[in-house]
Specification:
Layout: H1 24-32, E1 35-39, H2 46-59, E2 64-68, E3 75-80
Antiparallel strand pairs: 1-3, 2-3
Helix pairs in contact: 1-2
């Protein structure tokens, strides 16, 4: 029979993949500035960085726009959107 244990939600990090990447640096960056740049290391995955930025903004009730500095996708430029909260369709592709 499994044993269950009560934990403080702040102690639990749930994420995708084995790395279970923390959004904390993204949250801090968004709270500290209206805009910024994220420089990726060699082992960073561009799609993951962009997703974590978007999810961190959503956690804060904000909307962030971002784009790559160039086609190498090693620097992600971002800024808070004037709209405030993310739209219901955010993150979905349009045809």
């Amino acid at each position: 029979m499994p044993r269950f244990k009560k934990l403080d939600p702040d102690q639990v990090v749930v994420g995708r993949g084995p790395a279970r990447i923390s959004r904390e640096p993204y949250l801090k960056a968004i709270q500290a500035s209206e805009a910024g740049a994220i420089e990726l290391d060699e082992d960073d995955r561009p799609g993951t960085v962009k997703r974590l930025l978007r999810e961190a903004a959503k956690d804060l009730g904000l909307s962030v726009r971002s784009s790559w500095q160039d086609e190498t996708q090693r620097v992600l430029l971002w800024k808070k959107s004037a709209g405030g909260t993310p739209s219901a369709g955010a993150g979905t592709r349009r045809r």
